[in-house]
Amino acid sequence: MNGIRLVIIDLDMTLVDTARRCYEVLMDITGVNSFNFEEFMTLYYDGNGIRKGLANMIGDRAFDYSFWRECWLRYVKGGRYGSVMPSAVEVLRRLRGEGRVVTIATGREIEGRFLVRELETYGILNLVDGYMTLGDLGPQYGKDELLRRMVTRYNNGNFKGSVYVTDHPRDITICREIGLPSIGVLNRWNRGLRADKVINNLEELPEALRELEASIN
After folding, report:
1. Which domain holds residue 33?
2. Using one digit for the tens of pLDDT, what is the confidence trace for 100-132?
3. What is the CATH number of the domain that holds 156?
4. Beta strands 83-84 and 16-17: pairing type?
5. How many domains does the chain have?
6. Same domain? 68 vs 169
7. What pLDDT sits at residue 217?
8. What is the pLDDT of residue 2?
9. What is the pTM of this model?
């Protein structure tokens, strides 16, 4: 199809609400109880990333790839996940019905195979054409390389015909740096996103894609 063929969607806090469960796992692993959930979310959406703020509380392991891998393994193996964002399932079906390639790219430091049961539980595994994690690449790579590989694999390197849908301001900055259009999804913690298009919820995504296509072409 012409226009935006590839829609890459972030997983955590974009497609599914996992914040509360992630907070619980982090508290369990670190044994730290000096900050509450709201403070955790403030750290999560810090423009510099969560690691710098968290290091003030748990030390240098906040910068350690293996620490975050342990957190995500504890999360997925616990079998208690988050919840699908409102309208997510319907929107995924609609986008694929429009002929778009729909994929998931997440910065989780675990391999993609660990996502299968979780995505099945959400009812979205069969509604996406593929997924890739930072753990599939390894500790030497960042989100920029993850997105480049997604565009290369699923859209023959056509950045103009691809878009990343995300809730995080840092992801949007990365998209701008590598020339990938972005759509920001607002929530109660991340106001003021500077994406190419900004939406209030996933229900608005199909229309935002059409508007973005019109502005690009």
Report:
1. 19-78
2. 999 999 999 999 999 999 999 999 999 999 999
3. 3.40.50.1000
4. antiparallel
5. 2
6. no
7. 67
8. 74
9. 0.96
